[in-house]
Design goal:
alpha+beta, six-stranded antiparallel beta sheet, three-stranded antiparallel beta sheet
Length: about 650
């Protein structure tokens, strides 16, 4: 491959640091988003009201402000984490080569993970970090990077995050990324007067179709001193009075292995950049920051009881040390009142003593000596209510619903209102799920190409799709749905779907029990049917004996299977089916071998019962009579007679 043009582009962009036209806006948005999510640096978004607020007063307000915006942002983010935990997502890949499929599986498991605890792979990254980046920096990029390995080893790709600050420039043709130019701040070693120092420097990277060009600031003297020789793909270049180590890598990919995080287009840039999911609620975030700041300063400076009290003048510390307006005879501060000039109480063991007046008319009611005055709180109540309303308005702006913050929404709203609210939530989450699936397919396909799959082929199966229902309903809402389905007489499969959703909630976080439920659910004969429907099925001649036996003894049969095979629930379906069928057949054989018991209901409690009691003494004739009355004698054909009444 000819690298002349990529090198020229990389060096030119590094010299000029020419940024894309929306660079300033996307940086400002990322800073404000992150400040509202984390609370770090949010003070700089507070505005000083110059007419009434001095510089000192503003600094004091900033110091007292405790913003609620991070809590609101966290509340808005939670549904996105729920979506990514959906267990009904259709996901599969098949590149028609088992070796490649196996390598892809290894790559996905190692993606951003560790070799010891294999739990932080690609799926975990999508469920966690992708959500965070979607809210914090939608104009950032993620580059798939990897190190060269021997042919007999599997490449380990990893995500390299590029913030909107670092993504200096890029070019798209349609929706396809052509190149991405990145600047990262680094530290490099430099020899200064024979001593090694750590200096601030820059690293520029140009990611293109089939190549990567890296320009890393270095000190030649330090490298030569330490024997750091140039590799075959490296050389030194100098510009802007600095030395850079130029490295060229051929990726052999027909596309740039990078993607931008955002998916909601920014109308202010005509769709050239993106905003985060709660951008429509940013006016409420800004209002909440201002209002919360004012509420905090009001609570601190005014909302506490004021103490009004008559006090006696201080008489001094002793007879020789009198007090006059807080001063002792030498002009110093009175040690008794600390300069206040009044006799006050400093501990609970002290009291203010008043001289008893000579007449009742000269007495002052003690309640009039000290009083507490509470300030009016109407303004505080208004501010507090306004802050809560802003939180609700923020949710309404993002989801067109307040479902996630309104208490007892299930009982407070009608079914129609609940359904309407859920539809608004689904509409807000659908673009996120589409982006999620797109990233999944891109990363899996990239891993396949790195594993040896040829891009010229078109024979592969790659699917990732979320269901229409993101499974966000609570247990209470699902139980309400189940009640409505039962009352409406809807088909059994509708009840079955709701029951499965309820099970997903019950077994959240317990994958083993959830898998156990799913396996049992596959074999349960009458899923979704009511008790009456099951009774009719059991009495029907169109239901096999095996099915009836499995239903009647379901728990016992599966308990027996679990005891005999502790690996049953992790086996393939065909093996499970065989084990269940064999166990049911064994139960059927045992049931058929059992001798049926017939009862003469006509003799219960009557003469027949008396005859049996009388014949328990071993009399043969009596025993025969009792057996006949019990209906256990044989017919001529050898079969037991029907039960008589």
């Amino acid at each position: 491959m000819d690298f002349t043009k990529p090198i020229l582009r990389a060096v030119t962009l590094a010299k000029t640091e020419q940024a894309h036209k929306n660079h300033g806006r996307v940086k400002d948005l990322a800073d404000e988003y992150l400040a509202n999510i984390t609370g770090e640096g949010i003070d700089k978004y507070l505005k000083q009201f110059v007419v009434r607020e001095s510089e000192e007063m503003f600094k004091q307000r900033v110091a007292l402000t405790n913003s609620i915006n991070p809590a609101v942002a966290n509340s808005l983010m939670k549904p996105f984490y729920k979506v990514s935990r959906n267990n009904s997502v259709a996901r599969t890949y098949d590149f028609k080569d088992e070796k490649i499929n196996k390598k892809v599986e290894i790559m996905l498991n190692d993606f951003n993970g560790d070799k010891i605890d294999n739990t932080a792979g690609f799926e975990t990254w999508l469920k966690t970090r992708f959500v965070e980046l979607s809210f914090g920096d939608p104009n950032g990029f993620v580059v798939i990077e990897w190190d060269a390995v021997d042919k007999d080893k599997t490449i380990q790709p990893r995500p390299f995050e590029v913030s909107s600050h670092e993504a200096i420039n890029y070019e798209y043709k349609g929706a396809e990324l052509q190149w991405l130019f990145v600047k990262n701040a680094i530290k490099f070693f430099k020899l200064v007067g024979g001593k090694t120092t750590a200096e601030d420097g820059a690293k520029y990277t140009l990611y293109g179709v089939g190549y990567t060009v890296v320009l890393e600031q270095v000190d030649k003297s330090y490298r030569e001193e330490n024997g750091l020789n140039l590799a075959g793909n490296q050389t030194y270049v100098e510009f802007n009075k600095n030395t850079f180590l130029q490295s060229i890598y051929e990726t052999k990919l027909g596309f740039v292995p990078a993607f931008r995080i955002g998916y909601i287009r920014d109308l202010a840039t005509k769709g050239d950049s993106f905003v985060n999911p709660f951008h429509s609620a940013m006016p409420y975030f800004r209002k909440a920051l201002k209002t919360t700041s004012e509420l905090d300063i009001t609570m601190t400076g005014h909302v506490f009881p004021q103490k009004l009290q008559y006090l006696q003048p201080c008489q001094g510390a002793s007879s020789t040390e009198s007090c006059f307006n807080g001063k002792n005879p030498t002009g110093g501060t009175c040690s008794a009142c600390n300069g206040s000039g009044f006799k006050t109480i400093t501990t609970a063991q002290e009291a203010i003593y008043l001289k008893m007046p000579e007449s009742k008319d000269e007495m002052i009611p003690l309640n009039d000596i000290l009083v507490y005055k509470a300030p009016p709180i109407e303004l505080v109540e208004f501010q507090n209510k306004y802050v809560k309303e802003l939180k609700q308005e923020a949710h309404l702006a993002v989801y067109n619903s307040n479902m996630f913050i309104t208490p007892d929404i299930q009982s407070a709203k009608t079914a129609t209102e609940v359904d309407s609210n859920m539809e608004g939530i689904y509409d807000a989450l659908e673009p996120f799920t589409e982006k999620y699936s797109k990233i999944w397919r891109l990363v899996v396909y990239t891993c396949a190409v790195l594993a040896g799959y040829s891009e010229t082929k078109d024979d592969f199966n790659l699917i990732h799709q979320f269901p229409a229902d993101p499974k966000l309903k609570t247990m209470s809402l699902l139980l309400q749905d189940l009640q409505k389905v039962n009352e409406s007489g809807a088909p059994s499969f509708t009840r079955d779907v709701i029951n499965n959703d309820i099970a997903e909630i019950i077994f959240t976080g317990d994958e083993e029990e959830l898998n156990k439920y799913k396996v049992r659910h596959k074999f349960f004969p009458f899923n979704g049917k009511t008790a009456d429907e099951i009774s009719l099925q059991l009495a029907s001649q169109y239901v096999s004996e095996q099915t009836k036996i499995l239903y009647s003894n379901f728990e016992a049969i599966f308990t027996e299977i679990e005891i005999n095979d502790d690996k049953f629930y992790i086996k393939k379906y065909a093996e499970q089916r065989k084990i269940v069928d064999e166990t049911v057949q064994k139960w059927k054989d045992e049931i058929l071998k059992s001798e049926p018991i017939a009862i003469d209901f006509g003799n219960l409690g009557g003469s027949g019962s008396q005859n049996q009691n009388q014949n328990q003494n071993g009399d043969n004739a009596g025993n025969q009579t009792g057996e006949q009355n019990a209906g256990t004698s044989q017919n001529n054909d050898g079969n037991p007679p029907a039960v008589t009444q």
